């Protein structure tokens, strides 16, 4: 225990100095420099294997560090997909060469990662994807389109899933690849969302050649690779959010209600108590899940519970904010932070799987209820009339 106390003391001291040195609104260069310093100081990839650039420490150190960082907003958002999804996927199923090549720069913020699963005709039903990868000599030739790809504009690499065999049922002919986002055949077009920012993008692939050694997992085994990434995604969205700023939190809104003399109003109090309970439930569940993950227990489908709770909390708190603050919410009170939270809220109920899909997963795989009927699970992909399937693909 004294070692851990010393570790906690050093972590707190380091974080205090490092966050005090950050500019008020850290841009990409400052965020990258922060990640490199975090890694040099021994706090990036705390439990990741040392041979690939992690710190090789235990869940106990990770817990202590998270505790020390709990109330701080660190400029690590742009690295979230790499740290929370792509890195863990490569560590689980990547080749030795892939781990040696990609993990260290990812942990140091030198290379940013994105995840390219969703397509215009394949979101909830992502197995209907149509981006094609065809073996051409010693490389794969990729053509198609992805959409809603977070941080693609900043990314150096991405995990892509593409159809490699249309003659088998849709879940069976998919392969995962590492894509170099700087390849001349990759075009990234930012999409503006309701916050006015361009968080996600469209990504087009025109004859992008991907070397055979960039396949992640098995050829045609991309569905199970994608499930690995998605499970990490849900847990990491849920747990990551435990540390992000909450402008429409119980604390912020009860303060705003007090200032406006609204605390005597029973409807407002009722709303606030509801919010408090939801926040406590989310914080406790995400803390428990985070400890389980760090102790090596995989939450599996239960990650969907945290993700669903977070989406509901985000929407409900934005709703409560608009009731309590009235028009002030959109009149950019509080530096526009609440207005931004209001605009960002609905995205939380979609990204990483929609609330309806989370409920389906919880029903099927956590509660053991009967599965939804799926009539297309055994039909070869090329015979399906899915989404926007192009004529050529179904020939
Ligand atoms: C902020 C944000 C970030 C994102 N980042 C990424 C990213 O980095 N990479 C990536 O690949 N994707 C990303 N996405 C895409 C996201 O994964 C999809 O939006 C999501 O899976 C839903 O797909 P869709 O938008 O095509 O909606 P659809 O699947 O068309 O769904 C439309 C509606 O139908 C409902 N529905 C669909 N199927 C069922 C069913 N079986 N039962 C009940 N209801 C159903 C849905 O719940 C939804 O309400 C992001 C999305 C957002 C909002």
From TrEMBL:
<dbReference type="InterPro" id="IPR036250">
    <property type="entry name" value="AcylCo_DH-like_C"/>
</dbReference>
<keyword id="KW-0285">Flavoprotein</keyword>
<dbReference type="InterPro" id="IPR037069">
    <property type="entry name" value="AcylCoA_DH/ox_N_sf"/>
</dbReference>
<dbReference type="InterPro" id="IPR006091">
    <property type="entry name" value="Acyl-CoA_Oxase/DH_mid-dom"/>
</dbReference>
<dbReference type="InterPro" id="IPR013786">
    <property type="entry name" value="AcylCoA_DH/ox_N"/>
</dbReference>
<dbReference type="GO" id="GO:0005886">
    <property type="term" value="C:plasma membrane"/>
</dbReference>
<dbReference type="InterPro" id="IPR046373">
    <property type="entry name" value="Acyl-CoA_Oxase/DH_mid-dom_sf"/>
</dbReference>
<keyword id="KW-0812">Transmembrane</keyword>
<dbReference type="InterPro" id="IPR052161">
    <property type="entry name" value="Mycobact_Acyl-CoA_DH"/>
</dbReference>
<feature type="transmembrane region" description="Helical">
    <location>
        <begin position="72"/>
        <end position="94"/>
    </location>
</feature>
<dbReference type="InterPro" id="IPR009100">
    <property type="entry name" value="AcylCoA_DH/oxidase_NM_dom_sf"/>
</dbReference>
<keyword id="KW-0274">FAD</keyword>
<dbReference type="InterPro" id="IPR009075">
    <property type="entry name" value="AcylCo_DH/oxidase_C"/>
</dbReference>
<keyword id="KW-0560">Oxidoreductase</keyword>
<dbReference type="Pfam" id="PF02771">
    <property type="entry name" value="Acyl-CoA_dh_N"/>
</dbReference>
<keyword id="KW-1133">Transmembrane helix</keyword>
<dbReference type="GO" id="GO:0016627">
    <property type="term" value="F:oxidoreductase activity, acting on the CH-CH group of donors"/>
</dbReference>
<feature type="domain" description="Acyl-CoA dehydrogenase/oxidase N-terminal">
    <location>
        <begin position="31"/>
        <end position="110"/>
    </location>
</feature>
<dbReference type="Pfam" id="PF02770">
    <property type="entry name" value="Acyl-CoA_dh_M"/>
</dbReference>
<feature type="domain" description="Acyl-CoA oxidase/dehydrogenase middle">
    <location>
        <begin position="114"/>
        <end position="208"/>
    </location>
</feature>
<dbReference type="GO" id="GO:0050660">
    <property type="term" value="F:flavin adenine dinucleotide binding"/>
</dbReference>
<feature type="domain" description="Acyl-CoA dehydrogenase/oxidase C-terminal">
    <location>
        <begin position="221"/>
        <end position="367"/>
    </location>
</feature>
<protein>
    <submittedName>
        <fullName>Putative acyl-CoA dehydrogenase FadE17</fullName>
        <ecNumber>1.3.99.-</ecNumber>
    </submittedName>
</protein>
<comment type="similarity">
    <text>Belongs to the acyl-CoA dehydrogenase family.</text>
</comment>
<keyword id="KW-0472">Membrane</keyword>
<dbReference type="Pfam" id="PF00441">
    <property type="entry name" value="Acyl-CoA_dh_1"/>
</dbReference>
């Amino acid at each position: 225990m004294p070692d851990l106390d010393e570790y906690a003391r050093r972590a707190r001291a380091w974080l205090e100095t490092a966050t005090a040195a950050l500019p008020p609104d850290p841009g990409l260069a400052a965020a990258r420099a922060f990640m490199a310093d975090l890694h040099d100081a021994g706090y990036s990839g705390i439990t990741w294997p040392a041979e690939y650039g992690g710190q090789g420490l235990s869940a106990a150190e990770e817990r202590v560090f998270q505790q020390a960082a709990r109330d701080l907003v660190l400029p690590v958002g742009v690295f979230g997909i790499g740290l929370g999804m792509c890195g863990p996927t490569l560590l689980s199923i990547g080749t030795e060469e892939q781990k040696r090549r990609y993990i260290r720069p990812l942990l140091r913020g030198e290379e940013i990662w994105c995840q390219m699963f969703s397509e215009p005709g394949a979101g909830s039903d992502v197995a209907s994807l149509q981006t094609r990868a065809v073996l051409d000599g010693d490389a794969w030739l990729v053509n198609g389109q992805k959409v809603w790809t977070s941080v693609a504009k900043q990314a150096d690499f991405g995990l892509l899933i593409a159809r490699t065999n249309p003659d088998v049922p849709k879940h069976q002919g998919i392969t995962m690849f590492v894509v170099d986002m700087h390849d001349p055949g990759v075009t990234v077009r930012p999409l503006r969302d309701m916050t006015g920012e361009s968080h996600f993008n469209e990504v087009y692939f025109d004859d992008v050649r991907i070397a055979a050694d960039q396949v992640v997992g098995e050829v045609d085994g991309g569905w199970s690779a994608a499930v690995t990434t998605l499970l990490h995604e849900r847990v990491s969205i849920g747990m990551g959010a435990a540390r992000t700023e909450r402008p429409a939190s119980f604390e912020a809104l009860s303060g705003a209600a007090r200032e406006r003399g609204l605390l005597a109003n029973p409807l407002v109090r009722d709303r606030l108590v509801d919010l408090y309970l939801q926040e406590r439930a989310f914080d406790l569940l995400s803390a428990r899940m985070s400890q389980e993950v760090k102790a090596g227990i995989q939450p599996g489908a239960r990650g969907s519970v945290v993700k669903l709770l977070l989406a509901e909390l985000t929407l409900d708190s934005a709703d409560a904010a608009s009731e309590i603050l009235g028009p002030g919410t959109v009149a950019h009170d509080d530096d526009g932070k609440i207005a931004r939270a209001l605009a960002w809220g609905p995205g939380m109920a979609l990204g990483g799987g929609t609330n309806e899909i989370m409920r389906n997963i919880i029903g099927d795989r956590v509660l053991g209820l009967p599965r939804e009927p799926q009539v297309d699970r055994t039909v070869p992909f090329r015979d399906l009339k899915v989404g926007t399937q192009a004529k050529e693909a179904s020939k």
